[in-house]
Write a structure and sequence with these properties.
The protein is an alpha+beta fold. It has a single domain, classed as Hotdog Thioesterase (Thiol Ester Dehydrase, Chain A). It is 26% helix and 36% strand. The chain contains 3 helices and 8 strands; from the N terminus they run βααβββββββα. The strands form 2 sheets. Strands 1-4-5-6-3 form a 5-stranded antiparallel sheet. Strand 5 and strand 6 form a beta hairpin. The longest helix has 18 residues.
């Protein structure tokens, strides 16, 4: 069974909505971006980890699917799971969930590569990061309760 981990929580503000009253797509992307950063921290690449390792997991491919309309005042959370760990990449799946109803509002898939922050090129995932990402994939998150 896939074990998602909550990564972000928010309420849609009126100023985040477009001219027809729906959450504007830029804010879906922002919520899923926050979800990715929170997931990265769970595998050892929070701010301290990124600086210590001198690496990051930039998104090189992003797919967003809208499932239901989202309006101002909607309380939601995002959750994430690692779906694949490769030598130089991590694939993740994220869901935006209506906190009141439990309905899936949107889903996103990210392909992230292991990037050397100094050389700006891909590099192999450090072993500790790969192990933590595989643990996240298997059990929901390394050290999650």
């Amino acid at each position: 069974m896939t074990k998602y981990v909550e990564t972000h929580r928010a309420i849609v503000a009126p100023w985040q909505c477009d001219q027809v009253g729906h959450l504007n797509m830029q804010f879906y992307a922002a919520a899923f971006s926050d979800s990715m950063f929170a997931m990265s921290a769970r595998v050892g690449l929070g701010e301290r980890g990124r600086q210590a390792q001198r690496m990051a997991l930039p998104v090189v491919d992003f797919r967003l699917r809208f499932k239901r309309e989202v309006f101002s005042g909607c309380a939601y959370y995002t959750e994430a799971v690692v779906t694949e760990v490769g030598a130089r990449k991590i694939l993740t799946h994220h869901r935006m969930i209506d906190a009141e109803t439990g309905d899936v509002l949107a889903e996103a898939d990210f392909v992230c590569v292991s990037m050397d922050m100094d050389k700006h090129e891909t590099r192999p995932l450090p072993n500790d990061i790969a192990v933590a990402a595989k643990e996240f994939m298997k059990n929901g998150a390394a050290g999650a309760t």
